Amino acid sequence: MAAAIFTRRLHPDTPVVVFDGARRVGAKILVSGGARCNVTNTIVTDADFWGGRRTIIRRVLRGFPVEKTVAFFQEIGVPLHEEPGGKLFPNSNSARDVLRALLDEASRVGVKIVTGARVEGVVAADGAFRVVMKDSTLDARRVVLATGGRSLPKSGSDGAGLEIARRLGHTIVPTTPALVPLLLDAAQNTMHKELTGVAHEAELTLWVDDAVEMRLTGSLLWTHFGISGPLALNMSRNWIRNPGARLTLNFLPGSTFDDVEKWWTASAQERPPAAVAKQLSTRVPASVADALLRRIGISGSTTLAHFPREDRRRLSHALVSWPLAVSGDRGYSYAEVTAGGVSLDEIDPSTMESRVCPGLFLVGEILDVDGRIGGFNFQWAWSSAHVAATALGA
Ligand SMILES: Cc1cc2nc3c(=O)[nH]c(=O)nc-3n(C[C@H](O)[C@H](O)[C@H](O)COP(=O)(O)OP(=O)(O)OC[C@H]3O[C@@H](n4cnc5c(N)ncnc54)[C@H](O)[C@@H]3O)c2cc1C
Question: How distant, in Å, are the alpha carbons of 171, 173, 327 from that of 346?
Fold first, then answer.
């Protein structure tokens, strides 16, 4: 939809028709950011994304940077405000207002939107295209594929667009869910069930072949099935896309085993009669302290003065390197985005035009780009849409 709006704003003489298989467009805008729509972020760089080549992502982001996104939304009556982490939300805190403003703008600039029109195929012939729907076809000089990936399939983004792109000659980097909660194996001494609903700052380390592949910090949320919250969501695609990888949790982000040992020693000197659980709950939520101590068989009522060295070392180790028995993920139905997609190498980043099928443009989540939590995925959608729109008038 953004590509259509931008195209009409830039080239009012170019007729644009949007076909959407859903009965109502913009389902994901409505559910995004807890129904508040995290439209973008104050700072967006290629480092906020995974997927295809960084240089290509950077080029597209530069084509329509955050300042222009903010100005565009201001123009259509959606001023944004900043929240922690640089997240930008509409002042009204309503995703519905974002969608309404986009639809109003689409109507104002003359975009024709046909809903309930699922595209079954796009056929390229003689430098033009035939868009094939169930009961009708439409011939077009240029086609923009903006069908999203596979996440939240009930919204209409079920991967059909990837198949259309593949049939037009594109390489599809294998897809997986991303920004998705992870499941923990309850049979493996995990503590998620008793901690359901508890959130705290933490650090996750991804180990591949016993080497650190990635380390992320952020807020972790324990749930009845495993872990969620920004930290787990951001790490998810990396665990999923590295079969055999392990995840460990550091309850004290940034601290090493030696740091924690020093802290226990200093704590014992300052407050010898304090109980271990009580002292630990100055650093992590009390429920987490209790659950962890129980898991490793240490009595929380032991005083710091009588805390055996071996137990203290075991606890320090557990605090900075707690193994998480991840057994899977919650799948596309719970994933905010899709990792993988149409290979960026097959796109001209100055136009978003396909290098393998001239006249075809690809934008948004259908491409092999997935951003972290914080408004980055929408920024990718706005930037790529604008880059394509600029070229579409030529
Ligand atoms: C729960 C949730 C919360 C999110 N929150 C945020 C957030 O706060 N900030 C953020 O930056 N990102 C967020 N995202 C991610 C963001 O919504 C997506 O990255 C973004 O919507 C991708 O835009 P898109 O236009 O490429 O694809 P989509 O938004 O998926 O739109 C694709 C459209 O194509 C249509 N379509 C698909 N196949 C066909 C077909 N064959 N024929 C016709 N129509 C078709 C679909 O019906 C759909 O309307 C969230 C995602 C989810 C699921």
Answer: 8, 11, 34
| Total Cβ atoms within 10 A of residue 121 | 14
Indicate the SS3 state at residue 133: strand
For residue 86, give both structure tokens: 């640089």
Residue whose C-alpha is closest to residue 234's, from 178, 196, 184: 178
What are residue 262's phi and psi, to 5 degrees? -65, -40
Find out whether the beta carbon of 253 lies less than 6 Å from any atom of ligand 1: no
For the full predicted model, state whether its pTM sits above 0.85. Answer: yes
In tens, the pLDDT along 22-77 reads: 999 999 999 999 999 999 999 999 999 999 999 999 999 999 999 999 999 999 99
Cβ–ligand 1 contact at 157 (below 6 Å): yes
CATH fold match for the domains 2-178+333-392 and 181-330: no
Tokens in use for 188? Answer: 């493996």
**CB of 69 closer than 6 angstroms to any ligand 1 atom:** no
Q: Is 336's C-beta closer than 6 angstroms to any atom of ligand 1?
A: yes
What CATH architecture applies to the domain 181-330?
Answer: Beta Barrel (2.40)
* Domain ranges across the chain: 2-178+333-392, 181-330
Going by C-alpha positions, the residue among 383, 306, 382, 378 that lies closest to residue 33 is 378
Question: Rounded to the nearest whole angstrom, what is the distance from the C-alpha of residue 148 to the centroid of ligand 1?
Answer: 5
159 Cβ inside 6 Å of ligand 1: no
Q: What is the CATH number assigned to the segment(s) 2-178+333-392?
A: 3.50.50.60
Q: Pick from 148, 154, 33: which is nearest to 95 by CA?
A: 33
SS3 content of the chain, % helix, strand, coil (to 5): 40, 25, 30
